[in-house]
Amino acid sequence: MPQPKRDKPDTPLRSDAQRNRERILKVATEELTRCADAPLSGIAKKAGVGQGTFYRNFPHREALVLEVYRYEMQQVADAAPELLATREPERALREWMDRLARFAMTKAGLADAIRLVTSAPGGPEKPRPTPVMDAAQLLLRVNEEAGTIRPGVSADDFFLVIGGLWLIDPGEDWQPRATRFLDFVMDALRAGAPGR
Predict the structure, then answer these.
(1) In a 3-state reduction of DSSP, which class is residue 76?
(2) How many CB atoms lie under 10 A from the CB of residue 109?
(3) How far apart are CA 162 and CA 153, in angstroms?
(4) Other C-beta atoms within 10 Å of 188: how many?
């Protein structure tokens, strides 16, 4: 009896396998956001996949947590070009900042899960937020070219300034406070803009 062919590691996932993976990531994001040490068996069950399918995709907790983090960061990053395609540059930047704030506030449990897996001896290194940095740089460059923000603001400068977002307690009514804070950041970015 012939053995079934195994996919090569660089072969794209079949559509059903891709759907399983995405369902696992969606459920894992919700569960890990709620509870940093949510049991993997519960995540698999809620995602509607068997243990074999789950562990084929994510052989250990670290792999799942880091992939959820990358997935969520990529969603925030992907919003930048989408917003620029449908809004004026300044509006796109401000709305993207709101999405970043929602990510920061609603994913506090996910941040705890990442700390748990990356702080263990011999554990993996926390992934860098490169896609989000690239998205911020894109938004800043387009706004600078449009004359809506001061020239010379880098993504590093931007994240240094908005670092205050992560000081807001996600357990409180964070939205009004984050809105005021991000309005203040936008005012600072506009100061000295040639188009003003």
Answers:
(1) helix
(2) 19
(3) 13
(4) 13
Q: Are 61 and 114 in contact (CB under 8 A)?
A: no
HSE on the CB side for 51, CA within 13 Å?
A: 3
CB 32 within 8 A of CB 68: yes
Give pLDDT tens digits along the chain (196 positions): 444 344 444 555 678 888 999 999 999 988 887 887 889 999 999 999 999 999 999 998 888 888 888 888 888 999 999 999 999 999 999 999 999 998 888 776 676 767 776 666 666 666 666 899 999 999 999 999 999 999 999 999 999 999 888 888 887 888 999 999 999 999 999 999 987 6
> Of 4, 120, 116, nearest to 65 (Cα)?
116
Structural tokens at position 30: 């919700």
User: Is 137 in contact with 84 (CB distance < 8 Å)?
Assistant: no
Phi, psi of 19 (to 5 degrees): -65, -40
